[in-house]
Amino acid sequence: MQKSPLTTTLLLILVASALASLGLFFLDVRKTKQLRSYQATAQQVNNSLAGLNVLANECAEYGKKNPSIMPILEALAAKPAKTNPTPALAPRPAGK
Asked: Is residue 62 part of a domain?
């Protein structure tokens, strides 16, 4: 009894597919671990940013009572420099 070349070809394709699936599985596991690590780092950065925002708001409130701190806050860009408000646009005259 002879082996069919179709059976051999299909078996090779099956083995290649199984190996590719196994490789993709381990790649997915590794990338998922990396993603979780990045998410933890992003959470730490967000927590630090929230803390800095609270500190900046407290400094701005303190600056309302003691304006001598305002130049320092403006130099650190924690409080924007005083600017003139932009004038509102005048309404257009009715066309002819």
From this structure: yes
